[in-house]
Amino acid sequence: MSKLYVFDHPLIQHKLTYIRDKNTGTKEFRELVDEVATLMAYEITRDLPLKEVTIQTPVSEAKTKVVSGKKIGLIPILRAGLGMVDGMLKIIPAAKVGHVGLYRDPETLKPVEYYLKLPSDIEERELIVIDPMLATGGSASAAIQLLKEKGAKNIKLMCLIAAPEGVKRVQNDHDDVDIYVAAVDEKLNDHGYIVPGLGDAGDRLFGTK
Ligand code: URA
């Protein structure tokens, strides 16, 4: 059963407020998203397994712990997912990064793949699919499906803000994928924007309109 985790750390919630604010400009928006991504990476890696090692401190021998070789893959969905990658890599520097590009076919309204480049060993990695806005859930669900078709076995989804509709869609389609967010908002509006949300995450990150 897919679980939904809302990261309620005060620093995440504080920064999210300024990310949402329409008066926050591109430079600050990008920096805040980067910082929240680092904090969310810290939270999402909480269950990484540890193993004991023996080292020498300047004082004595010590039995202590290191992360035990679980390999991580970050999979941003283009383009807004890119805004969270560097922040995550700050504390998971050994992670490999794959990219998924999807566009919505204007006739069928279904997501169509236009770019896919993945680490060669995705079946051995814990993959974190990154999309700041989980709106209808169509892109996230399609990206997860693509990864499964390429052999991925262990997938998490990380978003800044989710709409209840998107959470439901991903949970229905992918029972085995847990979802990690900083907030679940009220709803989607008629244009597919999350309300209250933050607007278009890609445009705000890259200064486009
Ligand atoms: N994508 C965005 O960037 N913002 C939304 O509100 C919904 C989808």
Structure in words:
The chain is globular and about 65 Å long. It has one domain: 3-Layer(aba) Sandwich (Rossmann fold), CATH 3.40.50.2020. The chain contains 6 helices and 13 strands. Bound molecules: uracil (URA). Uracil binds next to helix 6. This is Uracil phosphoribosyltransferase. GO terms for molecular function: GTP binding; magnesium ion binding; uracil phosphoribosyltransferase activity. One of its GO terms (cellular component) is cytoplasm. Its EC number is 2.4.2.9.
Tally of contiguous helical segments = 6
Query: Stretches where pLDDT falls below 50 for ≥5 residues?
Result: none
Strand percent estimate: 25-35%
Strands, total number: 13
Q: How far apart lie the N and C ends?
A: 39 Å
| CATH-defined topology | Rossmann fold
Largest sheet: 7 strands, parallel
Bound molecules: uracil
CATH secondary-structure class: Alpha Beta
H/E topology pattern: EHHEEEHEEEEEHEHEEEH
Mean pLDDT: 96
Measured as a percent range, the helix fraction is 25-40%
**Domain tally:** 1
From the alpha carbons, calculate the radius of gyration and give it in angstroms.
Answer: 18 Å
CATH architecture: 3-Layer(aba) Sandwich
- Could you say which structural class the secondary elements and strand pairing correspond to? alpha/beta
Which of globular, elongated, flat, extended, rod-shaped describes the shape?
globular
